[in-house]
C-alpha cells in the first residue's frame, strides 16, 4: 500500500514515527507531506531525513489537497481536521490521529468532519467522542507516540554528554506556548534547584514563532546554567526527555497525561501568562478554549499556584511519588489507553485489513 502522513506541523512526527517505522518494516510505501506555511523547511530538514521516507513539501492545505488527488494513496493520516475530504475520499481512505491527549475541547471537535476512521487512545475518550458523533467510526488503540517508552526502545539522553550529572534526580519542565507558565519563572530559577538536573522542553511553536521571542529570551538565560539542558529546534520528540526525567512540571499540556502514564509524578503549574485576548472581559474565550468540561485533570498530580510553591513541592513529590499513583493509573486508563507498546501495531493492522 501507499500511505501518506499529512504533517501540518512537524511536531506531529513523534506521533507518526512509530507507525511509519512499522509500516516500512512491513513493506509499505510511506511518504510525509509537510506544509511550508507552518514549518521552516531548512530548519527541519535533518529531522525529517532521519525518518528515511519520501518527503513532499507543499505550500499549504490547498496544495496538499492537489497532491493527494494526484498521488491517490491508499491511506492518508491526518493530525487534525482537513477541509477537502469529499474530494479526497473519491480515491483514498483517511485516518485521523490526534498528536496529543490534552484537555482542550478541540480534541473532540476536530472530528466534526468525519474521516474513514479516527484512532482513539483511552476508554473514557472513546465513550465521550461517540456521544458527540454516534454515527462515525472510532477505534480505540492507545497512544502510538508512547510505544517506544512502553516497549523499551527509547533510550533517552546520555546526561553526561549534555553536561549534566547522571547521579542527580532530573526535573523536566515542558511548558506549552499559550497559556504558558514560562514567563512566570524567574530568570535564575535553576539556582533554586542546583541539586537537580533540569531538562527544558518548550513547545515547538515557542522556538519558531516570532510572537514568542520573549519566551525564547527566557530559555536563552536558563540555558547558561550548568545544571540545565534546553531543547533545540531539532529536539522534536519529548520521549528522551521523559525517559530521563523523574518529575514533570507543566500547565495545560498533553505532556501531563503522557508523563503520568509512565507512573511518574507531575506538578501542574496553575500560574501562567494569558495573552491580551484571554484577559479581562475576554476571559470567557480562555474558558471556552481551555475549559475542563471535556477532560478533568484536577487530580492528576499536585497543583501549585505560584513559582514559590515549587520550591517545596518538587522535593516533596519526589520523596512521595505514590501520593497520586492511583489517580495516575485511572487517568492513564481513561485518556492514554493501553500501555503495552502495541498501539502502532493495532493501527497498522487495522489499515491493512481495511
TrEMBL record:
Keywords, in A-Z order: Transferase
GO CC terms in record: membrane
One Pfam entry name: Glyphos_transf
Any GO molecular function: CDP-glycerol glycerophosphotransferase activity
SUPFAM superfamilies: UDP-Glycosyltransferase/glycogen phosphorylase
Protein name as it appears in the record: CDP-glycerol--poly(Glycerophosphate) glycerophosphotransferase
Species this chain originates from: Shewanella aestuarii
Taxonomic lineage: Bacteria, Pseudomonadati, Pseudomonadota, Gammaproteobacteria, Alteromonadales
